[in-house]
Amino acid sequence: MAHAHTHLPPPRAEQLDSEAAKTVSKRGAPAPAPRRARTWRLLTPWLFLLAPLVLLVTFTYAPIANMVAYSFTDWDGVSPELHYTGAENYTEIFTREDLFQVFWVSGYYLVASVIQIVAALYFATILSFSIRFRNFFKGVLFFPSLVNGVAIGFVFLYFFQDGGTFDTVLGLFGYHTDHAWLGTPASANTSLAGVSIWRYLGMNFVLFLGAIQSIPGELYEAAELDGAGRWHQFRYIILPGIKPVLTLTVILSVSGSLSAFEIPYIMTGGATGTETFVIQTVKLAFQFNKTGLASAAAVVLLLIILLVTWVQRRLVPDDRVDLV
Amino acid sequence: MTRRAVARALVYLSLIAATLVVLLPLGVVVLTSLKTENETANGSGALTLPRDPLNFHNYVTAFQDGGMLTAFGNTAFILVVSVGGTVLIGSMTAYAIDRFTFRFRKLVIALFLIAALVPGVTTQVATFQIVHSLGMFDTRWAPIALYMGTDIVSIYIFLQFVRSIPISLDEAARLDGANAFTIYRKIIFPLLKPAIATVVIVKGIAVYNDFYIPFLYMPSQDLGVISTSLFRFKGPYAAHWETISAGAVLVILPTLIVFLALQKYIYNGFMRGATR
Predict the structure, then answer these.
(1) Residue of B121, B165, B276 to mutate for A, most A C-beta atoms under 10 A
(2) CATH 1.10.3720.10 fits B69-275, yes or no
């Protein structure tokens, strides 16, 4: 930090005048209390933090605390009555097969995010070299991540519809089918996971591209002089250079796969075995009034995500996470 | 040399394939939105061109019967208030944390850091009860409060910027008799312009596109934002793909215009917002 007293301009005459005027007026006031000035100074940061902290506690910490408390009860979310039920809700989540199966659905989204990251990495790499129409391709790949989720849901409902875009395109290649893409669990989940790749690939791609472009260009030139091909440049320059962004993307993808909601909810509403963890929790809480059970489910999801983040931070220590 | 040429051709081929995959579903929806009810129903296929490419009838239906006008109004109101609030809250927090030493400073920082790890979707079950008890349920204040109160990323962006503003500026102002609020308002805030631009873009797009929070907290028809109003098309227009398509295009169009106009800032904004 630059405590650059030496850079201060010398106080100008009128400033000195106003300073003097202040002292005079202060002297005129009854006994300036130094203690009040000190309290005021101690209070200042808290005045700035008042609104942010109130919001943080009200909308993040209070809900977490309440949620943990609800998770040990049978509360329905409305009645004034609730009973302590111990760990019953948690046992229910892990033993009732219909509740537990949402974890298998997450598997589709996890696989999708692997494909998504690899594809994003590929496109970011090739578009970081000189390519014709580079900006056009960059814009096209990125644009879906800005588009409203409900609109995407509808676009792809039409895409996978009977006789919709997908069937028509397959027909052009001579492949005629009356397969209902959203009709069976495996096919529906694969389709939905595909939509989520379409939607989120661009964001990963742009992050990778930014990281690759911040690698100094001389490194490539030096590597080229040493006779390194594109693959070696990727392996030994690009990959290590974007490691922090790559790790962050991996955590975000894992927690994103576990908490997938919008695309499946909008497109199928969780029907035909496409219910995800969050859809199930929302239904439990707001349709079936099982606040207690829903809270337990949410606590489980929160713990899994925190665990993933923690494991990931242990495996790849990232020295840039210091906020102070 | 030929191997290199083949590799180059494959690279372009993959890019063209990706472009098709991205643009085809969107393009078909634009085509469908211009067709008449008969054209979509007669099974002529998704890729046929509309008979009258200037048939905007479906857009009128979507706009009037689908309540898209109210929706754009509600979205605009929520967007302006919550993005403005986020900028104020984020910059104030960053200023307090970076420029003051006070008791429990470490604790405050830890509170914000840990909150960043908690995904909002997981806690809504209990947040709902709090929003309800504050009387904000089914009002526009519920999403506004939630968008403002739970955005740690923007605090982080502001913090990085505040840190890069030399303290000597604060000290000079203090010698001129400025108090902490004047310093924040007259020195720190104006210098935060690039960070404000980033937060406005990232937050603005997130709010415009959000579905989950308005869906949970504003069930009333007249409180629909663009996401929830478009979602309601699913019921009455279930088989009317031409109307649904028009609605989707109406929602996507503003995004496309903003993207084309502010491309550079948007790329920078997201890179800064996500690499925190």
Answers:
(1) B121
(2) yes
